[in-house]
Here is the input.
Amino acid sequence: MIPPYVPHPRLTSGHVMTLFAWGRPRWFPNLPRPVDRYFDVAPDARVRAACHWQADRRAHPTLIALHGLEGSSDAHYMRGLADKAFAAGFNVVRLNQRNCGNTEHLSAGLYHSGLTEDPAAVVRELVSVDGLAAIAVTGYSLGGNLALKLAGDFGPDCPPALRAVCAISPTADLALCVDALEKNQNLVYQWNFVRQLKGRIRRKARAFPGRFALDGLSRVRTVRDFDEAFTAPYHGFRDAADYYHRASALRVVDRIRIPALVISAADDPFVPTSQFLAPGWSSNPNVTVMTTPHGGHCGFVSEGRPGDDGYWAEHAALRFVEAVLQPPA
Here is the structure.
């Protein structure tokens, strides 16, 4: 049973909640030093994960965590979730998207918001090589879209070991979320994403000389501009609009055949809850959507107390996957 979310009384603005959760220092007392693991997800692509293994990993369930746009395995929510999950007896795999977490040199290409081939390859390797039999995936923002789309892409052919997915503040309708990001009140988020995307494409150009033309980079002002100039053409999409349609989990949510939990806030600055009005959500009994009045984007901070740091969504995601992977006897 997931308790209702009660926001911190001084954090009832979506913007304040989002920025507070992003900037607040955090500590992770239960999280041991990670072991780096590299997964070859394509002939020209390798991703790095920060892994926390229980002493007998096969005897424990495993949680794969996916970060958001221009994040990494070191994002505070990735470590916060890992801290709680490891203490609860899970193996934890904090997965970097291609090129993220200072791994630009490991992959020739770029990542995008619907590139489920990478986490799918990781799941398959954890099953075939490590012998893991109970796996859940939890993703934040872009990673939430990936988690849901992963389950939808698998559909009825989902590997038996993949038992559940959870998505927190997911950008499940990419076009709708990019529209929201372009509103004036979201200028600071847009600026930050674009700054990071430009920095990454410059690093890619240095790592792979001649592969990425940077002529038009100075004209990129929005995430949509970047996707039009780089993401869409590199991955074979017709344009940004085609990319947003094909990469959105919304398109395949009706095909999800394992338990899926979605957590989103009505005051999220750039992930509108109107995306959950599409019929695919309510018509699929495997999917539960929890929308809260407050919580911001990947925030959901409540008042802490001894033994609880107040990050409600991390607790909620863990309770959900525990109920699926470790049901009471």
